[in-house]
Amino acid sequence: MAAPLRLGIAGLGTVGIGVVKIIQRHADLIAARAGRPVVITAVCARDRSKNRDADLSGYAWETDAVALAERADVDVFVEVMGGSEGAARASTEAALAAGKDVVTANKALLAHHGQALAEMAEAAGLAIRFEAAVAGGIPVIKALTEGLAGNQMRRVMGVMNGTCNYILTRMETAGLPYEHVFEEARQLGYLEADPNLDVGGIDAGHKLSLLAAIAFGTRVSFDDVQLEGIGQISIDDIRHAGDLGFRIKLLGVAQVSGRGLEQRMTPCLVPADSPLGQLQGGTNMVVLEGDSVGQIVLRGPGAGEGPTASAVMGDVIDLARGLRLPTFGRPATSLVEAVPAKVAAPAPWYLRMTLLDKPGALAKIATALGEAGISIDRMRQYGHEGGHAPVLIVTHKASRDDISHAISRFGATGVLVGEPVAIRIEEV
Amino acid sequence: MAAPLRLGIAGLGTVGIGVVKIIQRHADLIAARAGRPVVITAVCARDRSKNRDADLSGYAWETDAVALAERADVDVFVEVMGGSEGAARASTEAALAAGKDVVTANKALLAHHGQALAEMAEAAGLAIRFEAAVAGGIPVIKALTEGLAGNQMRRVMGVMNGTCNYILTRMETAGLPYEHVFEEARQLGYLEADPNLDVGGIDAGHKLSLLAAIAFGTRVSFDDVQLEGIGQISIDDIRHAGDLGFRIKLLGVAQVSGRGLEQRMTPCLVPADSPLGQLQGGTNMVVLEGDSVGQIVLRGPGAGEGPTASAVMGDVIDLARGLRLPTFGRPATSLVEAVPAKVAAPAPWYLRMTLLDKPGALAKIATALGEAGISIDRMRQYGHEGGHAPVLIVTHKASRDDISHAISRFGATGVLVGEPVAIRIEEV
């Protein structure tokens, strides 16, 4: 049997300890599958005295991740610290400079520096693997980069932030407002230290930008992801969407059209009986659409010790087996600069507004929509309450601009109470 | 760029022509991803004059698959003819003997001869790849063999015959009996020439046996798959199962316990709101459960030109990229002979029977169940019709033997009309 593959693990949080546990528990199984033993030679974390749920006594200890990355007895640098700058970036660069392959769970690092790191790695004949960075335990990077490599990808979609999906699901099932469930999630420890990474869509946007690069052969361009969080989603909209047969998800969509590369991470309505609509709680889902394969749906845990460590180990075992690919599935130097689409593809829209209880109010709204070139698929008016009438409209396909234009016309009708809500309906 | 990878395609049916089309349409995309061109040098089918939906004029033509397999200008032999014996087997063996890698969509061939072929390939340093053989376009072999390689697998499940799922779905939605929908499916061309391959569960059983070998490191043992087709499923059971919150699926399950390796391809009830329960029509689904990752669900088209060709191309591009693994994820010589479980794991059961409208009839059945050591989770008695009362029972966990024992006791009560129906409820 070949020589062991020696890992240095930087970061002993949930994921790092998960990796340690798998390697300790399944040494024989991994060696049988990889064709060689996989061992840990050194680990790294700031605080050595902290009580951790694994026996680390057999490993050399570094307090500096760069020092770990440069150790002669490390073949693969496993970066599970997180953060797009600082120690994570410095140690990843140091590992590549020292001729080590890198396995990382760090979506922020790659979303911001993926192109430079991939070029650095590939110039040196090294691999950067990041299955754990996207959708936790779901082997989606592998499915997209390898399994579907014969396809021209049409669209990639995903619910890739479990915390947001938990919040939206809990709002729906318990009938609680956003602020209440946000606070619950915070107390349960589901939120990042900066909650905007979750609820603002940034974390999921990082992931989407990595999938888009692989799918479309473009340089990672996180800055071009249209980001909109879930903070404006009301329990009213969740209920009304449900009445119309939809659920609201923080949905990432990447697709290429004549308009360019579209990357959106925004709340969308999806049919409640679609796989995306049926996804409840913290589970993740990625939908991959290719010209030959049609639609593939992958579902699984998007976070947690076991699932994320499973993804890290998939990458590690690939490297142990000698399976090596360019970071984004083709040489980084061949990735093209994406032309960002200025406008998103047209879609049906969900509109909710409150009208004054005046004769002809609804007709004025319908007229304004027609004048903006938008046709109505379904409209529903609810019973009047205190002189106000809630109205729901599902439009036929329209651009975001057309919808904004229509909404500004609504304002001129004099029958509108407050601001209308407009949420895109993604056709899945 | 490296030298082209040269394919010889044996079989110009749906899948073979699908592969030709992808290579013709996406030559540049594939070369960019694979790092080298992928070209077809020769093809093979019996009837050259047949009109096929692709331009084959640029390829050498063989009428004998063995001759194709042995051509000096073929690097990879793509076997998409089908059949476990005859030309498929002979040409695959010839390809390996001639030092060619093999990509195949042939589940029957591998279910029957996988061990011998894998040993032959690995002794010569060659690869046999078969993503297209299981669940069509879903990259499940890759997910299981590579992505989840850090997991001890607990259970693998799947709905892997689209025709059966189409029939069961159509029976439910149209309220039509099995015989009627079977005939529809035949006329639509959904059924194999020997329909028992589909509705008898054989085709899906072949696939399950391949997944089990990878998941558990055991030799393929199709003969140990417990096979039961869908021919006995009645519209009554589909309706009653629905009333109880279940759907009936032809479900494959492979798992290892203290009893040994269990492989079943049988009709089962699954919760209607689970991913498996929600699967409608011809779509396939595979559920992979590992000790670290938890549950991963993969969903996609299980057949058809594009999806199956997509899977073939994933394997071809892997080979072009130099990604090579043992056929079943670890050396074939290290695979162990599975000890087949003599009895399946206990499960809840769905029982349906008709009782005579006599006082105490239901009590007698309940008593018989209790005497067989089976406790009742739910029981439902419907209105009497013509002196007969339909009764549904959902039991707590029981073995198949206990259920058979109870059913024989029912017979002795003298209140039973006809034979009871018993269907396992798989906990998903």
Automatic annotation (TrEMBL), chains A, B:
Oxidoreductase in keyword set: yes
Coiled-coil ranges from the UniProt annotation: none
Pathways per UniProt: Amino-acid biosynthesis; L-threonine biosynthesis; L-threonine from L-aspartate: step 3/5; Amino-acid biosynthesis; L-methionine biosynthesis via de novo pathway; L-homoserine from L-aspartate: step 3/3
Domain ACT stretches: 350-428
E.C. number(s) listed in UniProt: 1.1.1.3
One Pfam family per UniProt: Homoserine_dh
PROSITE patterns linked: ACT
UniProtKB keywords: Amino-acid biosynthesis, Methionine biosynthesis, Oxidoreductase, Threonine biosynthesis
Family named by the database record: Belongs to the homoserine dehydrogenase family.
Protein name per UniProt: Homoserine dehydrogenase
Native species: Cereibacter johrii
Upper lineage: Bacteria, Pseudomonadati, Pseudomonadota, Alphaproteobacteria, Rhodobacterales
